[in-house]
Amino acid sequence: MLDSPASPRAARHPSPATALSARRRRLRKLLLIAAASTAALVTVISLAVSLGPVRTPMLAAPVVLLEPIAPALQPFGLHLPDLDPSHSALISTVRLPRVLLAALTGAALACAGAVMQAVFRNPLAEPGITGVSSGAAAAAVLLLVTGVAMAHPWTLPAGAFLGALAAVTFVQLVAGVARPGSTATLLLVGVALNALLGAVISAAIANASSTSDVQHAIFWLNGDLTATSWGDVRVAVIPVLIGLVVLLGFGRELNLMVLSEDAAASSGVNTVAVRQVVLAVAALITAATVAVTGVIAFVGLVVPHLVRLVIGPDQRALLPLSVAAGAVFLVLADLGARLLFSPVVLQTGVVTALVGAPVLLLLVLHRRPG
């Protein structure tokens, strides 16, 4: 006898037309969310550039960005509006690099956090779990308390970047020697290294020769975007953009790895190679941003959770939307750091902790049994 539409078998095996309709509805939903995320990011960047002790027009940021190609627009009858020279200088040299670096950093940390949570199948995983943040912090603090960081403007970001890469390399090598292919071993080695480097940081700060060195070290450890320049943006932009493109291409493989290593392997995924590549790229983009901003917490931990609640666990949608949401979140956090308690300016990392910790607690309570 043929199965009726209401039979269990028909429910388990929907018709091709029904499956196609469901895929189209999901695609429309994702396109709508993507369009809304892009619009939100553009709006937030324009808002962050225009607000401050000196107010500037919201359209000033696009005008400043388009100024280099203004001559090419004139044959088409397009002319950029004139800006107050003081506004143009303020935006181009102070606000725009700071806001763009915040967007890059938020996007990198959120995407890296989503990747870490997928690879480790652990909702508490975040970009610093492989030692990248601690490695950067230890190198930066040692350079600051010894005075070496003052030798050249590039000394601190270069040292922090190398420290981050050294820490990640150490974790990968030790875990590979101990138990190749084991995510649990990788996690444990990362936890141990974070504890060790935390002790190094504490010892270096406790034995600093001056209070100003201690203040500089603590300021860097809390993460901040004050005095951001276009040089800082240039340090981060290329590795972050290339790394994000690479990570976004692993959505299918990460979906399978979230289910189980065996399911991924049976589908033809080289789980060891994929894990090494995505973890290395996630560490690279984290190192590139941490090197110029300091340690900014909770972005990579909380943002993927919030995105997952909205769109579900599909990594092919979760990763790109985490990129947009992370950028929006950190731009808003940095804007709040500048304006909430004006004239007192908070550090950006302090604001992300003040917002991220309560949100994480709410997520934990929301997911409690019963």
Automatic annotation (TrEMBL):
It is a multi-pass membrane protein. Keywords: Cell membrane, Membrane, Transmembrane, Transmembrane helix, Transport. Its main location: membrane. The keyword Transport applies. This is Iron ABC transporter permease. The chain crosses the membrane at residues 30-52, 99-120, 132-151, 158-178, 184-206, 233-251, 277-306, 345-365. Belongs to the binding-protein-dependent transport system permease family. FecCD subfamily.
